[in-house]
Amino acid sequence: MSKPHDMGGRFDSRRIDIKSSNVKFKADWEKEVFAITLALGFSSLWNLDRSRYARETLEPEDYLQFSYFEKWLAGLINLLGENGIIKDGTESEDNFKKSSFRVLEAKNVKKLLNMGGPTQRDSNSEKKFNLGETVSVRANNSNTKVEKGHTRLPDYVKGRTGKVIAYHGSHVFPDANAHFLGESPEALYSVEFKSQDLWDKCEHVEDTVVVDLWESYIEKFK
Amino acid sequence: MKKDNLKQFYKEFPSNPDARVKALKSILEKEGLIDQKALDGILDTYQNKVGPLNGAKIVAKAWTNKKFKEDLIYNTDQVLKDMDLNGRQGEHVVVVENTETVHNLIVCTLCSCYPWPLLGLPPSWYKSDAYRSRAVREPRAVLSDFDVKLPRSKKVKVWDSTSEIRYLVLPQQPSRSKGLSENELVSWVTRDSMIGTGFPKPPTGE
Question: How far is Cα B104 from Cα A47, in angstroms, rounded to an integer?
Answer without folding.
Answer: 30
